[in-house]
Amino acid sequence: MENFIEGVERFSAWLWGIPIIALLVISGVYMTFKLGFFQFRYPVYIFQQTFGSIFKKPKGEGTVTPLQALTSALSSTIGAANIVGVPAAIMFGGPGAVFWMWVIALIGMALKFSESVLAVHYREQNEKGEYVGGPMYYMTKGLNMKWLGVWFSFALMIELIPSIMVQGNSVASTVQQSFNIDGLYTGIIIAAIAALVVFGGIKRIGQVTELFVPFMAAIYVGGALIVVIMNIDQVPGVFALIFGHAFQPMSAVGGFAGAAIAETIRWGFARGLYSNEAGLGTAPMAHAAAQTDHPVRQGFWSVIGIVVDTLVVCTATAFVILSTGVWTAEGALDNSSALTTVAFEESLGTFGSLLVTVSLIFFVLSTIIVIIFYGAKQAEFLFNWKIAQAVKVVYLVAIILGAVGAAQTIWSFLDLTLAAILLPNIIAILLLSNKVKELKNEFFRSDKYYLKDIGKTK
C-alpha cells in the first residue's frame, strides 16, 4: 500500500509540474490572443466597471451583487497558499519566480474571464429561484456534452472531501500551535460557523464574504505594508532581485540553495496559477449568481479577482519575505512554510506572529465556507436541491475529521482529483472559445454596453 501511495505521489508531482503548467500557459496565451489582449487594452475601463461601480445599483438580473460574487470567489482563492505558498516559490525558484508569477497572472486573466463569461451566459435558475451556473452548465448547454459536465461535477464533489479535510487540519494545527486548543474542538467550532453560513445559500455567503474578505485582506496586506515600510531601504534591492533573476539563474546565498532559470519560471507559473485558480472552474460558480446585464461585465470582476489574489496579496507576501531577508537565513529552505511568520515576528514581534496566525485562520475558514457551496452546487446539478443540503452535512463532518487528522492517506490523491476537474474545464473553454469571443465583441461593439459607458454611441 505504501508503495502504491508513493507511486501516486510521484505521478501527481510530475503531472502538476510541466504538463499541467504548460497546458494552462498555452491555453491562457491562446485565449489572450483570441480575445485581442483585452486585459492589456482596457485596464482602466475594467477598474471603472468593477471597483468604480461598487456604490452603484447593479444592472440586470441575478441573485447576489457583482461585488458579493467576487468576494465569494476570492474566499476560495485567498487562502493558506497566499501565506505559505509564496515563500516556497521563492525558496525553490528564487526571487525571479515573483516576476513569472506576475506574468502568468496577466495571462491567466483571459482564462478566468472566459470561464466566468460562459458561466453567466449559460446559467439558469434553480427551484429556489437562485441563479446557478458553472462549467457543468456550459458543458451541458454550450457543448451539448452532459457527460463531460457530469464528469466535472462528480470529480469536484468527491475532490472537495479531502480538500476540506486538509483545510480543517490546517486551521486546527495552527490553532493548536498558537493557542494550545485541541483539534477536535477547533473542528467542531469551524464546522458550526460554516453551517450557519452555508445553509443560508449564496445570498448569505455573499453577505458574509462582502464584509469578511475585504476586512481580512486589508488586515493582512496592511500588516505586510508596515513590514515593507520598516525595510523601505531594501525595496530597490527587492525589485533588482525580482527582475534581475527572472531571466538568469541565481546562485546559492545563505539558506537559499540556488535555482536554474527553468525552475524559476516553473515555480513562478505554478504559484500564480495555483493561487488564483484560473482555469480550474470553481470561481465561475460564484460569478454565475451575480446581477449583471451582460456576461462580459461580470467577467471583468473575475479579472479583478486575479488582481487582488495574485498581484496584491501574493505580492505583499513576496515583498515581506524578500525585504526582511529571511529567505537567506540558514535553514530557511527546510521550513519555507514558516518564513512569512518569521518575517512578521522579526519585524513586529509577537503581534506580527499573531497577525499571520489569525490571517491564516480566517483565510482558511472563508475558503471552507465557499468550497462547501461549490460542492453543494455539484450535488444540485447531478441530483437535486435536497441532496445538495445533505452533501453540505457530509462536508461539515469532513471538517471535523480533518481537524483530528483522520484519513491523511487520501490527501495524496488530492492533486489527481484536481486534475480530473481542470482538464475537462480547459477542454470546454477551448471548444467554446468562439462563443467567448462573440460575447466579448458584442459587448465592446454594442451601443448598449461599452460604447454607452464611454459616451460613444453611434
From TrEMBL:
PROSITE patterns in the cross-refs: NA_ALANINE_SYMP
Keyword Plastid: no
A family per Pfam: Na_Ala_symp
UniProt entry keywords in alphabetical sequence: Cell membrane, Membrane, Symport, Transmembrane, Transmembrane helix, Transport
Record membrane topology: Multi-pass membrane protein
Family: Belongs to the alanine or glycine:cation symporter (AGCS) (TC 2.A.25) family.
Protein name: Sodium/glycine symporter GlyP
Organism: Bacillus thermotolerans
Lineage of producing organism: Bacteria, Bacillati, Bacillota, Bacilli, Bacillales
